[in-house]
């Protein structure tokens, strides 16, 4: 196994998808010669040609519509939304159209589309480039929302997403793109969708997270260990639908839970997890469920990002509060 | 120097620019209101045999009959949502006659007749109207695929999707096009422009129709845009764009046929604005057109509706008469009666099926919901 960056793992998965299946197409803004603004598609147009990897006009709804239409000709589109803050422009194509089509066509048509997009903050981007909007898409029936937290998962989950006959919103953390490296298995492999993973086992408290927040939760768990608190860390990987079995087993073991998300506190993934735990496993709980999330403001301008974003220290403090609850 | 001075003056003459836009789109017309051919050359270019002319007449007749029956049934509570089509038969049925089974149709919610013309049984159209998922299965009575999307409610969305199909057809080197319909209101949506622009940028196989029927529910065409012609919007994306008399079946067929041929040859999409009128309310849900338009205006358009002129033309040609028409209407009504019975007999929908049909592999919570509803027989 070689050590690779998060973005290199994604680029490798895209390459393997194009190699494996002629019907796979990649398109979006600047994905061709430029290789995407983050270089996720670097070299792919040169390797597979302009018929299969191509730039679009600069219009997100058009990109979404293009993907939907291409499925009628048995293509498997991988569309890129350059930044997830541009989701609002393509929300009808994603939520109003592709997500509804299997249901709408009474299960007679497939929508094998992957919507790839960078999300999350911490890189001082301009406005509308850094939002955590996973809660918006996770609420839409008919979509899968996948948010890998490390290079190996990014590759395996992306290959699974391309194989899926349902639309998958595949969200890539901007900050992790080049800051995170990890061992990535060689060749083609898939990591199952809809399955959470326990990335660190523990007995005292369950820390549940996903995507870009997972590394800081692991860091928090390391800090807690120094104080004798043995935290279990769950990485959801797919945030819609959610794997409640894995969560349930852990909650029954530890009896204490903190849910951590980069997104603002209101609604969102953590709210769903807390509600499901309360409904299913409340008798296993020894303390109220804690939550760490960003403040309920618009995503801040670049200079305020560091103050605004969730940090490992916030997770440590919340975990200690839950541990110390009588 | 003089030329540059004159040119600059012209460029800066905004009154000229407004007038120039208005002058650029003369209306294509072959069959006038009196049922007379006013352009024999265009008629011959249409290459319509007598059988084709009769087929177009029949399609328009059953479309009108479906409109009449649907409106009545809606009043009896036996139909669901229905958007009346009377007056638009040439725009819908004569244009769609130019397309083939392999072509992909992208209809708006008022474009039910074009899907039926592709082989979608009327009983499925009735189920669609009633809100039964079975109505959204696009197959013929003998289960062959019908290349149609569903009747789109978001009235620009079908344009971006049609652009995707059009690009796919081009990539697969197919001798086929995507053809999409929207209305004058649809051209105000961003997706309208994104769709024609994408298709044009890729020189993809598409024909886009804008049925300018005067009103988007109660908003008149003049409030949709200050552009003098909706077709002019096609020019902004580099498309050949034309205005056609939407109540003239011959002109509609000719325009659609030539647009299809041009696009299939790899030249890119074409935009066709059809000048027609919605003679009835927006939908059977009860809006009153007299709140937003004059009765005299409606009466005037009824005199120009497409069946009158086609009937006159075919009768004068000696290939149509009252007896034939009456027999065909009876036949159509018998068919509609049978189709209603089929629709009435379709099994009730189940919530558990909805859950099974939302994702190919349902998530854990959905599986629990499926089990719950199945145990309750729902």
From TrEMBL, chain A:
Residues 4-179 form the Transketolase-like pyrimidine-binding domain. Its cofactor is thiamine diphosphate. The keyword Oxidoreductase applies. GO terms for molecular function: oxidoreductase activity. Keywords: Oxidoreductase, Thiamine pyrophosphate. SMART domains: Transket_pyr. It holds the Pfam family Transket_pyr. It comes from the Bacteria. InterPro entries: THDP-binding, Transketo_C/PFOR_II, Transketolase-like_Pyr-bd, Transketolase_C. This is Alpha-ketoacid dehydrogenase subunit beta. It comes from Weissella diestrammenae. The lineage of its organism: Bacteria, Bacillati, Bacillota, Bacilli, Lactobacillales.
UniProtKB/TrEMBL annotation, chain B:
Keywords: Oxidoreductase, Thiamine pyrophosphate. The keyword Repressor does not apply. Its cofactor is thiamine diphosphate. Residues 57-350 form the Dehydrogenase E1 component domain. One of its GO terms (biological process) is branched-chain amino acid catabolic process. It catalyses: N(6)-[(R)-lipoyl]-L-lysyl-[protein] + 3-methyl-2-oxobutanoate + H(+) = N(6)-[(R)-S(8)-2-methylpropanoyldihydrolipoyl]-L-lysyl-[protein] + CO2. Its EC number is 1.2.4.4. InterPro entries: Alpha-ketoacid_DH_E1_comp (IPR050771), DH_E1 (IPR001017), THDP-binding (IPR029061). It comes from the Bacteria. It holds the Pfam family E1_dh. The keyword Ubl conjugation does not apply. The branched-chain alpha-keto dehydrogenase complex catalyzes the overall conversion of alpha-keto acids to acyl-CoA and CO(2). It contains multiple copies of three enzymatic components: branched-chain alpha-keto acid decarboxylase (E1), lipoamide acyltransferase (E2) and lipoamide dehydrogenase (E3). Belongs to the BCKDHA family. This is 2-oxoisovalerate dehydrogenase subunit alpha.
């Amino acid at each position: 196994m070689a050590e690779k960056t998060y973005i290199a793992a994604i680029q490798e998965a895209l390459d393997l998808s194009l190699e494996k299946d002629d019907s796979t197409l990649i398109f979006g803004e600047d994905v061709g010669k430029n290789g995407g603004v983050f270089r996720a598609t670097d070299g792919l147009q040169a390797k597979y040609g302009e018929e299969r990897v191509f730039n679009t006009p600069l219009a997100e709804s058009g990109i979404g519509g293009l993907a939907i239409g291409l499925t009628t000709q048995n293509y498997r589109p991988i569309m890129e939304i350059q930044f997830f803050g541009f989701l609002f422009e393509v929300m009808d194509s994603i939520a109003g159209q592709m997500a509804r089509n299997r249901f709408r066509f009474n299960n007679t048509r497939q929508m094998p589309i992957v919507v790839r997009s960078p999300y999350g903050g911490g890189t001082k981007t301009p406005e509308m480039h850094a939002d955590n909007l996973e809660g918006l898409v996770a609420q839409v029936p008919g979509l899968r929302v996948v948010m890998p937290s490390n290079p190996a998962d990014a590759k395996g989950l992306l290959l699974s997403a391309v194989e899926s006959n349902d639309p998958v919103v595949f969200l890539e953390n901007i900050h992790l793109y080049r800051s995170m490296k990890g061992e990535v298995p060689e060749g083609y492999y898939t990591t199952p969708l809809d399955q959470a993973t326990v990335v660190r086992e523990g007995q005292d408290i369950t820390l549940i997270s996903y995507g870009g927040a997972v590394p800081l939760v692991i860091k928090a768990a390391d800090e807690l260990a120094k104080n004798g608190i043995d935290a279990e860390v769950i990485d959801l990987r797919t945030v819609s639908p959610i794997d409640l079995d894995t969560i349930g087993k852990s909650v029954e073991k530890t009896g204490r839970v903190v849910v951590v998300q980069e997104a603002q506190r209101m609604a969102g993934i953590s709210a769903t997890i807390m509600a499901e735990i309360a409904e299913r496993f409340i008798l296993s709980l020894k303390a109220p469920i804690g939550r760490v999330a960003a403040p309920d403001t618009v995503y801040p301008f670049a200079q305020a990002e560091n103050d605004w974003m969730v940090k490992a220290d916030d997770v440590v403090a919340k975990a200690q509060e839950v541990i110390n609850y009588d | 120097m003089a030329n540059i001075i004159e040119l600059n003056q012209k460029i800066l003459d905004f009154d000229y620019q407004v007038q120039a836009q208005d002058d650029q789109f003369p209306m294509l017309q072959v069959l006038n209101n009196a049922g007379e051919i006013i352009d024999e050359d265009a008629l011959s270019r249409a290459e319509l045999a007598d059988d084709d002319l009769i087929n177009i007449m029949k399609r328009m007749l059953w479309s009108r009959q479906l409109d009449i029956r649907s409106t009545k049934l809606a009043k009896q509570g036996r139909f669901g949502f229905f958007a009346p089509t009377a007056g638009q038969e040439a725009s819908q049925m004569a244009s769609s006659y130019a397309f083939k089974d392999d072509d992909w149709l992208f209809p708006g919610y008022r474009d039910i007749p074009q899907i039926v013309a592709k082989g979608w049984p009327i009983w499925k159209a009735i189920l669609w109207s009633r809100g039964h998922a079975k109505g959204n299965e696009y197959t013929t009575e003998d289960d062959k695929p019908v290349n149609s999307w569903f009747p789109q409610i978001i009235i620009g969305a079908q344009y971006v999707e049609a652009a995707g199909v059009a690009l796919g057809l081009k990539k697969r080197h197919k001798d086929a096009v995507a053809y999409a319909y929207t209305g004058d209101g649809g051209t105000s949506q961003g997706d309208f422009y994104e769709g024609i622009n994408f298709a044009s940028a890729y020189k993809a196989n598409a024909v886009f129709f804008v049925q300018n029927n005067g009103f988007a529910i109660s908003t008149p065409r003049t409030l949709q845009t200050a552009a003098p012609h909706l077709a002019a919007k096609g020019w902004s994306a580099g498309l050949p764009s034309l205005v056609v008399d939407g109540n003239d079946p011959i002109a509609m067929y000719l325009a659609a046929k030539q647009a299809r041929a041009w696009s299939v040859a790899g030249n890119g999409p074409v935009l066709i604005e059809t000048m027609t009128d919605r003679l009835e309310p927006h939908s059977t849900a009860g809006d009153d057109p007299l709140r937003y338009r004059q009765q005299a205006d409606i009466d005037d358009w009824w005199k120009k509706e497409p069946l009158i002129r086609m009937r006159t033309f075919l009768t004068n040609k000696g290939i149509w008469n009252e007896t034939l028409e009456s027999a065909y209407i009876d036949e159509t009504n018998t068919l509609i009666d049978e189709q209603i019975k089929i629709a009435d007999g379709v099994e009730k929908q189940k919530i558990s099926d909805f859950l099974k049909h939302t994702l190919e592999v349902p998530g854990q919570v959905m599986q629990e919901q499926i089990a719950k509803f199945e145990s309750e027989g729902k």
